Amino acid sequence: xxxxxxxxxxxxxxxxxxxxxxxxxxxxxxxxxxxxxxxxxxxxxxxxxxxxxxxxxxxxxxxxxxxxxxxxxxxxxxxxxxxxxxxxxxxxxxxxxxxxxxxxxxxxxxxxxxxxxxxxxxxxxxxxxxxxxxxxxxxxxxxxxxxxxxxxxxxxxxxxxxxxx
Length: 165
What we know:
Layout: E1 2-7, H1 17-31, E2 38-45, H2 47-58, E3 66-70, H3 87-90, E4 98-106, H4 107-117, H5 121-136, H6 144-160
Parallel strand pairs: 1-2, 2-4
Antiparallel strand pairs: 3-4
């Protein structure tokens, strides 16, 4: 497993963010039973940076807490079967790892939302990574049923690593 973390924000998180991110990425991959070693890229930015990415990539003119950019096309969420059929699309030729995708997180939103929801920055960061890892594994929350399923999966991933409200 390769987790690349880039810290672009000026504001610092006062938590062991690298450890939290790696723990949650690893747990999420175990949870969805990913059969491959995977690589994930995580960028920690500020509201201005995520706002620009949100505008450029999604046409939404405001900052958000997290953005997910999956590299894999899943017919069924969490179903990794079939990815080997086109290895040149999904696997890093140098490492053989599954290129799962990119996660972008606003450090400012981590701090704001931790305060708003009355839990720690550790828990908020872990939640955003778990949420995004499910997106990278093909899950979405456009419909109520999908949203409820994703919420349950997020809760279970966080619980398995001890990240509680």
